[in-house]
Design a protein that fits this description.
The chain is an alpha/beta fold and 385 residues long. 37% of the residues lie in helices and 14% in strands. The chain contains twelve helices and 13 strands. α10 packs parallel to α12. The radius of gyration is 21 Å and the shape is globular. The model has no long low-confidence stretch (mean pLDDT 95).
């Protein structure tokens, strides 16, 4: 008998691969346009790119890529350790924070146990849970599509070993305050690992900011993940990290892929952490342009959820009802045909919604200028059918 896909473990057979935002090069080629004519507002990348200091640091280290990187990321761990005031043995480095989430699942989940995550939360939680053989328990969200911490508590079963919470959440942008998280942790049994995914936390400011690192002192079952892909602008280099109990980190390291963070990614992350002025600049731009984006969408009767990330979730179907196809999916297709890449969220059961990243002022204005044409094409298609 030939070896075929039928011999794969049964619990992964109905999984669909994670699909990121469409690449600029693909759409430019398809539409016969130059890449600079494409507006990408799909993947929540920093529109400023990376810090100029990071660019310089990378350029000066290119000659060293023929050598294997430091597999333990010693210098980067030390930087993160100093930045957060934790010990180096509490830090786990990954090929993006997705790698950290996947390693958590591979380490602590298995057939016969379960993980809990919210109805509208990052797709990787389900992928990591199911691929490990564990059962998924999906906690209901609120009417406003926000996390309900009481629903999380109610969803916990006797075999639950892990809880995933994104804060701020993707794709909704909702946010949980620090006192609510602290209260939640008090109600979770210490035998359950709470994974707090803070990929977008660098966009929080003022009273919104959650000092979750301090919670680690009181809760040994808390594990926090962070990313360099969003505000730090290093999405293409793939580097993220987790902070938690050193015993948890130690066992995760035993199954970590060798050299999972490449040399240039380590150099970039080290330099990026040193340039907090760039993060301040990025936050200011995000705040200003998000307001312009929300106001611009509202002129077309499109309502957005309040967001603490660098994106908005827009309700297309609320005022643009279609007979034959969900409005969010259809608008995505029409925008794409005009050279604007956004993010459909049908896979989250939000087919009437569209996630739109905050770009530069120019990118967002280009999007808002093209939007009427896309809405018109969408309506004409629906009427013709």
């Amino acid at each position: 008998m030939n070896f075929t896909s039928k011999q794969a473990v049964p619990w992964i057979k109905n999984l669909e691969p994670y699909n990121g935002g469409k690449p600029i090069s693909e759409i430019a080629s398809k539409l016969n346009l130059s890449e600079h004519q494409i507006v990408k507002l799909a993947s929540n990348e920093n529109p400023l790119g990376m810090s100029p200091k990071v660019k310089l640091a990378i350029s000066q280290e290119l000659q060293k890529v023929s050598r294997y990187p430091d597999g333990n990321c010693t210098v980067l761990k030390k930087m993160i350790s100093n930045f957060h005031g934790v010990s180096s043995d509490q830090i786990f480095l990954g090929n993006g924070s997705n790698d950290v989430l996947d390693c958590l699942a591979r380490t602590f989940l298995r057939k016969g146990v379960s993980a809990v995550y919210s109805k509208y939360s990052f797709a990787v939680y389900g992928l990591a849970t199911i691929s490990s053989g564990a059962n998924s328990i999906i906690a209901p969200a609120t009417e406003n599509l926000e996390h309900s911490l009481s629903a999380f508590i109610s969803s916990i079963s006797g075999d639950t070993r892990m809880i995933f919470i994104a804060n701020p959440n993707n794709p909704t942008g909702s946010y949980i305050k620090e006192n609510e998280i602290r209260s939640f942790l008090r109600h979770v049994d210490k035998s359950i690992l709470v994974v707090l995914d803070e990929a977008y936390c660098d966009y929080l400011e003022g009273t919104d900011f959650t000092n979750s690192i301090q919670l680690l002192k009181d809760y040994s079952n808390l594990f926090i993940t962070r990313s360099f892909s969003k505000a730090y602008g290093l999405a293409g280099l793939r580097v993220g990290y987790g902070i938690g109990n050193k015993d948890i980190v130690s066992v995760m390291n035993s199954i970590r892929q060798p050299f999972n963070v490449n040399y240039l990614a380590q150099i970039a992350a080290i330099t990026a952490l040193e340039d907090q002025d760039f993060i301040i600049k990025s936050k200011l731009l995000n705040k200003q342009v998000m307001r312009e984006l929300i106001d611009g969408l509202s002129t077309f009767g499109i309502r957005c959820l309040s967001s603490r990330g660098n994106f908005v979730l827009a309700n297309i179907g609320e005022n643009f009802k279609l007979e034959n196809e969900p409005a969010g999916v259809k608008l995505f297709e029409k925008l794409l045909s005009l050279g604007v890449i956004t993010r459909p969220v049908r896979n989250y059961d939000l087919a009437d919604w569209l996630r739109i990243s905050v770009g530069t002022q120019e990118e967002n204005r280009d999007f808002l200028n093209i939007l009427p044409q896309a809405l018109d094409l969408m309506a004409k298609d629906d009427n013709s059918n």
